[in-house]
Amino acid sequence: MKHLHFHIALIASLGLGMMPAVSLAQTPSTSVQAIDAFYLASARANFDPKAFFTPDAHCQVVNYTADGKSKIISLTQDEFSAQVDTLVKMFDVEQQPVVVLSRYYGHLATAYMSVYTRLIDKKSGDTLRLRSIQAVQMIQQTDWKIASLVIQNEVSTFPFSEELWPQELSAELALGIGESNAEDTTETMSLYDPSKVYNIDELQVAPEYPGDPSLYTSLLSAFNVTTDGDAQGAPFTVVIEEDGFARLGYVGDLSGAQIERATSFVKSMLIWYPGVKSDASVKTKLVFYLL
Amino acid sequence: MKIVAYILTLCFWLGGFAAISQTNLGNPSEVIASFYRALELPTLEERSQALNALFMEDGTIQSIVQRSSMVSSSRGGTVKDFLNGSNDFYLNNTMSYDEIERSIDYYVDVAMIHSLVFQSIVERKNPSVAFEQMLWFSFSMAYQDDRWYLTAVSWVNAFEDEDIDDAMRLDTLWHQIKD
Q: Is the pTM value of this prediction over 0.90?
């Protein structure tokens, strides 16, 4: 077998013909530094996706339907940027990689990491803390750019392993979040029941409808629904799941037509920011009234 | 940052996966094996069908030609872009892939898989002309509809300055949280 120079073979193997070469005259920053810069920038207003993503990059987010099945949402870099804009309008956002499992060779690098996200509601001051697993593929052109980002928020029934959320780091983390300390965090993390549907008054942070408040008001008025218990409407409940999806709950006093209206009302909802108890997303029950 | 030993990585030394005949895309290993088999298919139609079945609709492919530690060129795009861009080469050559080593990191419905493969290329007109090289592949996957989908695949070739086995070496980095 005749062996030729490796890179010649690879060019041929891809059938890609002549491609512009990138020559790095200076020692480049590392892919991990680029990741740090990305998480810092994507928690701020005026996030510029072009500075961090390759032109064809996509971000996939794992969501869950009401019956618990995974549903992948794919975002272009512009769509990702729009999500960031929405988030930073409502919250002070802080997000940081915690443990990064990093590999690289040449101008390809990957990271599989746990990420801490803290959202502080700009109006109420309520704090939402999330943990997620994020997987990135990065390519070094003139700078390191993200070619692919996949995000999976923590699923309460599958807590992170010690390797991805070491006690040493979670203790440090707890020191920075208000009145909590490491011991308290360890204790409270076990105080919620992932299968239970909580009332709002049992939560640290109530579920929040995304976007401008007028969106929520418009939704209520479009279906002639209120949250005012004194309005003498027909009550029904909606459960906001840990992943923010809404499902219809108790409808015992509703007629068939009313159940259809309540179902349409729930199906028209965007994905909520879920309720939080003991620093974990939980199921929450909301009560509405059909007028 | 603190570097600790390899964590969470399952390494499988593989003697080859050609014997795998049934496809169970609920198993990430089968997705990887099917991907390499798809790259070996001779016709555009076959490759197109096989690759599109493995990727999510917005899935992407990135290839990097690494000439030295400091010089490379890359090309990326959709699966369709890859199929069209590589078709001329497939008309003139056949390719085969032998996986040497694999590692997987996963959490619930997300997985990241790394793989070292030995690629062989043989000219169709003159089978005595052949090329061989090692490649490092990175696969991102997500689980939906009772199966795994590829969301992104990237790869880079071995180059002289650095042993490609280093690609599989994992650094675990601990970030000091600033809250």
A: no
